[in-house]
Amino acid sequence: MSPVLLSVSGVAKSFRMHLRGGVELPVVQGVAFEVAAGECVVLGGPSGVGKSSILRMVYGNYGIDRGIILVHDRDSGAMRDLGAGDPRLVLDLRRSSIAYVSQFLRAVPRVSALDVVAEPMLAAGLGREPAREAARGLLRRLNLPAALHDLPPATFSGGEKQRVNIARGFATGHPVLLLDEPTASLDAENREVVVAMIGEKLAAGTAILGIFHDDVVRERVATRLVDVSHFSARQAA
Ligand SMILES: Nc1ncnc2c1ncn2[C@@H]1O[C@H](COP(=O)(O)OP(=O)(O)OP(=O)(O)O)[C@@H](O)[C@H]1O
Ligand SMILES: [Mg+2]
């Protein structure tokens, strides 16, 4: 049995709508699943059910109302509860253990694509030159024209930005990888590259939690599906 690297249990989340008099909008409850090394667990269910929200909770972007989110800490080898809301623990785990490819790249002004990709490798302790060299290799593999490597991604096309985002998320050997529709705006050739990169991560023992709207990609990468409709707090309300 492969070790479990991500374990979510009893997680509930509602949004407080400040612009609507602080009304509580429940989204999910009783969220529970595990992802083991070498697994790609795909979150499914209709639009608005809470798939992206679950990824953001697991990455520590959204706080949770209750529950436990245990992430394998590569530094200590222990499972640590990221759901407890300790911001230092969240930053620590992001540096060492948990990577996230969001649906859209949040570009930092004036930082080149190459440095956006190299940054998590530097944070994880790699030297500047090897990190930039590895970043260049990843961007090349994803067919990002060399002329763009040294430019900030702010003006890139949707698919170019997404490839920078993917390169950044895949740059480190973090044990847990979160993917929110990474192939959504890619052409067939680059989709193939990403499917291959996912396969390599799985072979290396990474635990992947992802969302894939593209049925063909999902069929090829998913080792298991988790239907988020089962956790919807709206049906129950
Ligand atoms: N920051 C937020 N504030 C308020 N409501 C939010 C916030 N983020 C998400 N929601 C709400 O939570 C629900 C779930 O959204 P989420 O983005 O997780 O859905 P999804 O399953 O990823 O949908 P899609 O397949 O369309 O991407 C939606 O009703 C959304 O409006
Ligand atoms: Mg979504």
Automatic annotation (TrEMBL):
Organism superkingdom: Bacteria
GO molecular function: alpha-D-ribose 1-methylphosphonate 5-triphosphate synthase activity; ATP binding; ATP hydrolysis activity
Keyword Nucleotide-binding among UniProt keywords: yes
EC assignment: 2.7.8.37
Domain ABC transporter: 6-236
Swiss-Prot/TrEMBL keywords: ATP-binding, Nucleotide-binding, Transferase
Family classification: Belongs to the ABC transporter superfamily.
Protein name in the entry: Alpha-D-ribose 1-methylphosphonate 5-triphosphate synthase subunit PhnL
Species in which this protein is naturally found: Aureimonas pseudogalii
Source taxonomy: Bacteria, Pseudomonadati, Pseudomonadota, Alphaproteobacteria, Hyphomicrobiales
